[in-house]
């Protein structure tokens, strides 16, 4: 539950930090190394509008209640959240950011790995 609250907070833009910083801080808190977390934050800020980021935050809040393991965040979790947004560009951009930043979805990995596994 904590992780999706943080994702929602990160993706809800505030005056205190840029979307990139908020996204990166949240992802770093779940074990992703700082460089890749910053990469994802930068990619999403660059390629999604403020409204799209807010929709992604709302989807994260709704998704958190159904999470079977709320204590950790995987790339698959992030992709699932993005797929709940009605705007088709959001899940595409999240998937592209994951690829560009070298995050491996668990569905494609031979074993279940944490998001920060290389």
Q: What can you see in these coordinates?
A:
α1 packs antiparallel against α2 (about 20-30) and α4 (about 50-65) packs across α5. Helix content is about 60%, strand content about 0%. The relative contact order is 0.19. It has one domain (about 1-110). The chain is globular, with a radius of gyration of 13 Å. Mean pLDDT is about 75; it is low at about 110-115. It is mainly alpha-helical and about 120 residues long.
Short description:
This is Lipoprotein. By secondary structure, this protein is mainly α.
Q: Helices, strands, pairings?
A:
Elements: H1 2-11, H2 19-29, H3 34-47, H4 50-63, H5 75-83, H6 89-100
Helix pairs in contact: 1-2, 1-4, 2-3, 3-6, 4-5, 5-6
Which descriptors apply to this entry?
single chain; 6 helices; 118 residues; mainly alpha
User: Approximately what portion of the residues adopt beta-strand conformation?
Assistant: under 5%
- Helix percentage range: 55-70%
Output mean pLDDT.
Answer: 75
- What's the overall geometry? globular
Cα gyration radius (Å): 13 Å
**What is the count of helical runs?**
6
Protein name: Lipoprotein
């Amino acid at each position: 539950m904590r992780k999706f609250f943080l994702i929602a907070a990160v993706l809800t833009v505030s005056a205190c930090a840029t979307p990139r910083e908020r996204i990166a801080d949240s992802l770093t808190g779940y074990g992703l190394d700082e460089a890749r977390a910053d990469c994802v934050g930068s990619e999403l800020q660059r390629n999604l509008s403020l409204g799209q980021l807010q929709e992604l935050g709302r989807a994260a809040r709704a998704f958190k209640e159904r999470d079977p393991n709320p204590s950790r965040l995987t790339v698959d979790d992030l992709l699932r959240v993005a797929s709940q947004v009605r705007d088709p560009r959001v899940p595409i951009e999240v998937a592209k950011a994951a690829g560009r930043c070298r995050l491996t979805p668990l569905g494609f990995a031979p074993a279940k790995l944490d998001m920060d596994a290389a």
